[in-house]
Design a protein that fits this description.
Blueprint (H helix, E strand, L loop, with lengths): L1 H8 L11 H8 L1 H37 L1
Length: 67
């Protein structure tokens, strides 16, 4: 997709994008990296909290079943 978009933007100079093209893109647009990192961090914390809720629930179920 990146190569396609680049060729549309620069039809006179088509060239393949590099292996780490996304890092250069984020360097040119630092506002995107910050938002992306915050979103992932928020989702990670949320998933970790959900994990502990589920573990706690199933531990309680196992305790009730075993008694």
């Amino acid at each position: 997709m990146a190569m396609y978009l680049y060729s549309k933007r620069n039809p006179e100079r088509p060239r393949p994008v590099g292996h780490n093209w996304h890092l250069s893109f984020l360097d040119r647009h630092p506002e995107l990296g910050i938002k992306y990192s915050r979103q992932i961090e928020h989702l990670r914390v949320e998933a970790q909290q959900d994990y502990f809720v589920f573990v706690n629930f199933f531990e309680r179920v196992c305790t009730i079943i075993s008694t």
